[in-house]
Automatic annotation (TrEMBL):
Pfam families: Abhydrolase_6. This is Alpha/beta hydrolase. The keyword Signal applies. Coiled coil: none annotated. Keywords: Hydrolase, Signal. GO terms for molecular function: hydrolase activity. Residues 42-254 form the AB hydrolase-1 domain. It comes from Actinomadura montaniterrae.
Length: 262
């Protein structure tokens, strides 16, 4: 008996592989959970007497958890001009954003958030949260004792720093003496317009907000922090830390940021 061999059976080698690659539908290879939406960019805004390097330990943790991060260099020249700077900076970031402000930086994110697109949440870290028309100076006056400030006249105004001899007590009481001394030496002065310019916007009215209250804070009294956070209807967490909480308790700071990002 003779058998007829089908024509396709005679196709071998590279020709067969090529044919299969064309005619066999691709099979799904991702058998795990479907990928979720991209994580929002975390924008970190430092406050007075510090710089963006103060976020270093938090940045390390956020990046390890897969978050894109930006840390801006706050000019510290006045609430109005610094808000304009941050607003301009935010236009360069595409997609959802989480704005995080420490101390004076909290006032900046409050004001800049309303002009930015796709701001998912606001996070206040031992921060000022001013109402419209209110100044940082008015809020700071509620904290006692007053910070030990040193004033220096500069072209176009006055800048202030914290007395280096009292910096650790006022700003970084839970950091070791060496670290606190280095921070005192490298602190960046802030123009007094930061405390005299009135706040113009209230981002927390329309954007979900979180606040980390620092119970050992001698720069912004914890009760003043609680008052501002309650007024902003922020989801609040408290931690035993000084004003330099990003350095002394970076895990707690990272946790509340990621909670807001989710």
């Amino acid at each position: 008996m003779r058998f007829r061999i089908p024509r396709w059976a005679a196709i071998t080698g590279a020709t067969a592989v090529a044919l299969l690659s064309v005619t066999v539908p691709a099979m799904a290879t991702d058998i795990g959970k479907p990928a979720g939406p991209p994580k929002p960019t975390v924008v970190l805004v430092h406050g007075a007497w510090t710089d963006s390097s103060s976020w270093g330990r938090v940045i390390e943790r956020l990046r390890g958890d897969g978050y894109p991060v930006r840390a801006i260099a706050n000019p510290l020249q006045g609430l109005t001009s610094d808000t304009a700077y941050l607003s301009s900076y935010l236009t360069t970031i595409q997609g959802p954003k989480v704005l995080v402000g420490h101390s004076y930086g909290g006032a900046l994110i409050t004001n800049a958030a309303t002009s930015a697109t796709d701001v998912k949440s606001l996070v206040y870290i031992a921060a000022f949260i001013p109402a419209k028309g209110e100044t940082i100076g008015e809020l700071a006056a509620k904290s006692t004792p007053a910070l030990p400030l040193v004033s220096t006249p500069v072209p176009g105004g006055t800048e202030v720093t914290i007395d280096p001899a009292q910096f650790r007590t006022a700003f970084a009481g839970d950091l070791d003496k060496t670290t606190a001394a280095e921070l005192a030496i490298t602190q960046r002065p802030v123009n007094t317009r930061a405390v005299t310019d009135p706040s113009a916007e209230e981002g927390f009215r329309t954007i979900p907000s979180w606040a980390l209250i620092t119970r050992q804070d001698h720069a912004i009294n914890p009760d003043v922090q609680r008052f501002m956070a309650a007024r902003a209807n922020a989801r609040t967490t408290e931690v035993d830390a000084s004003h330099s909480v990003m350095l002394s308790r970076p895990g707690a700071v990272t946790e509340i940021i990621e909670r807001a990002a989710r």
